[in-house]
Amino acid sequence: MSEPTKIFLNESEIPRQWYNIAADMPHAMKPPLHPGTQQPVGPDDLSAIFPMNLVEQEVCTDRWVDIPEPVLEKLLLWRPSPLYRAKNLEKALGTPAKIYYNNEGVSPAGSHKPNTAVPQAYYNKIFGTKRLATETGAGQWGSALSFACQLFGLELKVYMVRISFDQKPFRKMMMQTWGADCVASPSLETAAGRAILAEHPDTPGSLGIAISEAIEDAVTTPNTKYALGSVLNHVMLHQTIIGLEAQKQMAMVNDYPDVVIGCAGGGSNFAGLSFPFICDKIHGKNVHVIAAEPAACPTLTRAPFLYDFGDTAKMTPLLPMHSLGHDFVPPPLHAGGLRYHGMSPLVSQLVVDGLIEPRSYHQLNCYENALLWARTEGFIPAPETSHAIAAAVEEAKRAKEEGKEKTILLNWSGHGLMDLKGYAAYLAGELSDYEYPQEDIDRALAALAQYPKP
Amino acid sequence: MSEPTKIFLNESEIPRQWYNIAADMPHAMKPPLHPGTQQPVGPDDLSAIFPMNLVEQEVCTDRWVDIPEPVLEKLLLWRPSPLYRAKNLEKALGTPAKIYYNNEGVSPAGSHKPNTAVPQAYYNKIFGTKRLATETGAGQWGSALSFACQLFGLELKVYMVRISFDQKPFRKMMMQTWGADCVASPSLETAAGRAILAEHPDTPGSLGIAISEAIEDAVTTPNTKYALGSVLNHVMLHQTIIGLEAQKQMAMVNDYPDVVIGCAGGGSNFAGLSFPFICDKIHGKNVHVIAAEPAACPTLTRAPFLYDFGDTAKMTPLLPMHSLGHDFVPPPLHAGGLRYHGMSPLVSQLVVDGLIEPRSYHQLNCYENALLWARTEGFIPAPETSHAIAAAVEEAKRAKEEGKEKTILLNWSGHGLMDLKGYAAYLAGELSDYEYPQEDIDRALAALAQYPKP
Predict the structure, then answer these.
(1) Which tens digit of pLDDT belongs to each residue from A325-378?
(2) How many angstroms away from the CA of A264 is the closest CA of chain B?
(3) Using CB atoms, which residue from B173, B420, B423 is nearest to A420?
(4) Model confidence at B379: pLDDT above 50
(5) With CB atoms 3.0 to 4.6 Å apart as the test, which of A39, B30, B169, B281 could cross-link to B454 if both were Cys?
(6) What average pLDDT does range B225-231 have in this prediction?
(7) Chains A and B: how many Cβ contacts under 8 Å?
(8) Interface ipTM > 0.90
């Protein structure tokens, strides 16, 4: 018991500011463009769907942003989250590497998503918003925002991607328990939903469609704003509390990671852990940062960096990002949270700048490593998280081959207790790998040729 | 943020001994009796189903029992568990009371059950057992033992009460993820199961039946022992790590509880938190200890204290306990873990001795309070835990009425993420209360008249 298994940060040491990487990037992020004029959007354009205080954060370039006291108070319900050392996994791998992970599964919703749900609900509350509309894929974000809206007394409507809505009924119950209203998307409640259902009555839905519905709801319902759980700058900002805590915790055990790993769907848990370390890297520190994504949805590893819409109905601004195309139809894949066509513009820009190495992992490899994790460390990871685990195990095995000590830090973004059907399917041999077709990427590229290049 | 929301005990301060209340009880527990001879059973009788090292713990009267180093190492995967202050709930109630709770939901299996599953697997491993058989009700125990057996490389067969097996398919998937084999009970795999199915093909099953099956499996399969997740003395012993940690954590904030509360099914989470405090009470400390049970299964509040079997097939020794009768058929109730006919003999004796106040709570009241908890503190409690919450809220409201400061400590025995159907049913108005019929208690009493009285 000489080296601790868990490193707890005292509540009094919780970070009181978020870190904004916009202040340190070698190349500033390109501006979002108006979907109609294709000119840079200003705060006023965004204020139709977001409260102005969040719009200000979205365009803010200050390095540090204060966390409001009422937000801190709610974050303390579960934060600082513990940093764990995966000693049993290390032993099972026989690796000289040390594997640390921050356990975001300890939040009430079971993932990192409440880190931004709570401040988003708070900023809306003080702005005067009465009701929020949002979308959710696998349900992590919808659950987290339900929890946060309940804490601040806001109403919430969640548009949940149909296939997940059907496959994961417990997620809906969770949102109801926290007082939210959840419907399957596409729904009959919006023009966007009705249009898609008319054309594709059996569609499994997609995040892009659900975003279109939630935005339409927000702009057509009084006192309602829209909230997004990933991709945008203010979301990445809120998540940096993860990495800031991890830096303090690593210092408590006199260590610093050689490798920092997160899984990447829209980019928020990845950014949350990695941005404070990328700040160190920009300032000369030697740290390798890996974004792990599914081979079935290879946004960073195979999709181009260009301007694309965030949603299917082309209602959002054009964002400068790696994208598989806004009409992307997600392949069958149990990591629902990683099935988005686009990627955070900040993360995309940092990949372009060579500060992040993206890697893709196949589903079966991820489940194999998730099972190894569950059977050594005990905690059952979310399917999304298993991509980060696959990368960490790959690095740990490499360290063994090379006979090198190495410190690996991964973001354990959430538990898989609501996703056990995926494990059962894997154990029953029902899952397979899927390589995203090149012609689909080419088609998306062609369709986006009419828009400006970043 | 002056008073902390969470109190973390450093890993180096984890208790290294369990507390054995047998050393301090005003009246020693009456001995279990052999089902055939009705004479006190000795260690040899128990060694048919348990390894001798656990049998020795079962009859041990030493006040302190060392926790083996390999057990501590595995407990450190999640322990010490954090002590939380339920500030948001206090605020919502407007009470002057302080409400603390130890969060046992942070374990990989999501409840307090791994606290005894891990040592039971360990002791079996070093004894030479290759395989364990056990039963589970709602699935908390079966999951926890699957996790623990995986850590120590033991095979496991779980007999899961049919109604829960059907209602909670995720539990089976969880056990499979940790490598265990889980079947619905009654099953066709044991003589006990076949006999019950022949007579009642549509039976929902019961813990008593599942115990009979698991014991039969253990005594008829080579290298196999039986494991029980509650009721027995060694289980209560292992769980005391909860209360021992809580005592250290309360001392860290210079506080001590006026009231200690746990929900009680077989008694283990209740005993785990309360026994170290009952030790203080026996030695003069003023602390009120409340066991909260369902009105639908009122073992401590309405059932007699007598000798009864632990299982339906009358294979176990006769135990001195409060019991609703071994042929008890559980009423519909979402708190599956509290549906056992009997109660820990240690807890029963302490109730007889007036050291514990039992109280019963109706289902709708429990869900109402569980929902209040989820909407203030965020974490969604297990239906079992909601009974402890109902008692804590009752005490906090009384403190408000009386205008008294009061420190309440409750055992938050597990999360309800696998039990969301109960919340959905409650929110849909589909649940009702159930008063256990007096004639059923009278009938059980009459059937047990032939056995000795404790």
Answers:
(1) 988 777 766 666 677 899 999 999 999 999 999 999 999 999 999 999 999 999
(2) 24
(3) B173
(4) yes
(5) B30
(6) 96
(7) 112
(8) yes
Q: Nearest 5°: CA angle at B114, between B296 and B221?
A: 90
> Which residues lie closer than 8 Å to A256 by C-beta, 6 or more apart?
A250, A285, A287, A407
Choose among A342, A353, A414, A383: nearest CA to A102: A414
The class that CATH gives domain B66-110+234-446 is: alpha beta
CB B356 within 8 A of CB B274: yes
Domain ranges of chain A: 66-110+234-446
State both tokens at A217: 């709801």
B237 Cβ contact partners less than 8 Å away, ≥ 6 residues apart: B18, B19, B20, B57, B60, B65
- Name residue, tokens 């008890």: B328
Interface test with B, best of A2, A3, A5, A16 (most B CBs within 10 A): A5
Q: A380, A421, A423: best mutation site toward chain B, by most B Cβ within 10 Å?
A: A380
Task: Note whether A273 and A81 are within 8 A (CB).
Answer: no
For residue B377, the chain A residues in CB contact (below 8 A) are 77, 108
